[in-house]
Write a structure and sequence with these properties.
The structure is a homodimer. Chain A is mainly α and about 160 residues long. Chain A has a single domain, classed as Orthogonal Bundle (Arc Repressor Mutant, subunit A). Chain A has a two-stranded antiparallel ribbon. In chain A, strand 1 and strand 2 form a beta hairpin. The first copy, chain A, starts with a helix and ends in a 14-residue tail after the last helix. At the A-B interface, helix 1, helix 2, helix 5 and helix 6 of A face helix 1, helix 2, helix 5 and helix 6 of B. The structure holds iron/sulfur cluster (2 copies). The structure holds a DNA duplex (30 and 30 nucleotides).
DNA sequence: TATATATACTACATATATGTGGCAAATACT
DNA sequence: AGTATTTGCCACATATATGTAGTATATATA
């Protein structure tokens, strides 16, 4: 017999943790979605217009972001008629960490889960021992995976 | 022989991922720091003043947050002289997820890492297969650990 | 050179999170 | 009752992220 009250509590937790914390800023999301989408067919030249239509990202915001990604050296931008964007760095040389680092001010994120600036195993907060494993899993994905390591066969959306 | 350029790149990644993404909002941080600090000695009555001094959190912001935590049923608030806050729910009944859920609008977080609203294994994004494991580790900590499950012996800071 | 089609840039507009000031209300003590 | 101490509330101030408008610049083609 299922206790309805706790079922809903549990369901709410699942919904909550499906997203909470694990969600990047819009800007990082956009950057990753754009670059992973481009990485599916890395040789192509992509116009802002085509990316906007495909990825449903706000026009001017995407364009600004593309300029950032260009200045950061991930892509070329070709101005004028028949212009667009294509990879400068190879997708297998672009780590997920690099992308996020490029579009967000790294200095914004000085601390860990509980916001302390100077953290170490020698000066731990109360969550440290429970948190370390998650943090390392997380780090290994974002520092270890490149744009070309992702599962393009599986993906049904960008 | 160490390649200096890559050493610095690596160091930057470590710094980056020490914080990035894994950092909660200030509000959630505060809530967790306050409640974990109180959970170290759960029977005590804590004044806002003492919490502000100990945890270095902005006066009015902390007070507002305490009212929220009170309304959400985690703590009692006792007004007037000799007033303060103490636990209403037992710390071992308060999951980390509950705290974050209470102080942040859950509706803000509708999606997962790439921001999609309707996600499932049947409709995955390009990161899904690499991301699922991290997400589950993460979920198990926040839905599985209560305030009293944390390592109070180890902790040197709140 | 004129035109169509691109990206680049700057400034402003809006939304949200975070922080602050001032005063009201509650309670214990004298 | 009066005072000191404490929480509660509301409105505004500030910082940051996000989104929008308008214009300038670059390039291929006719
Ligand atoms: S979990 Fe560890 S690294 Fe993160 S804030 Fe706490 S002490 Fe610092
Ligand atoms: S990783 Fe999976 S659950 Fe997360 S956004 Fe991608 S498809 Fe959705």
């Amino acid at each position: 017999m299922i206790n309805i009250k706790y079922f809903f509590k549990f369901a709410a937790d699942i919904l909550l943790f499906h997203g909470i914390f694990m969600k990047l800023t819009n800007t990082s999301e956009y950057a990753l979605r754009i670059l992973t989408y481009m990485a599916k067919d890395p040789g192509q030249l992509y116009t802002a217009k085509s990316l906007i239509e495909k990825l449903k990202i706000s026009d001017k915001y995407l364009r600004r972001l593309m300029t950032t990604l260009s200045k950061e050296g991930f892509i070329y931008s070709i101005q004028g008629r028949d212009g667009g964007y294509s990879f400068k760095k190879q997708p297998n040389e672009i780590f997920l960490a690099d992308v996020v680092n490029a579009v967000e001010g790294m200095d914004t994120y000085a601390g860990c889960v509980l916001g302390f600036e100077e953290c170490s195993c020698e000066n731990p907060c109360v969550m440290h021992s429970t948190w370390v494993k998650v943090r390392e899993e997380f780090m290994s994905v974002f520092t270890g995976k490149t744009l070309s390591d992702l599962d393009f066969e599986l993906a049904k959306r960008y």
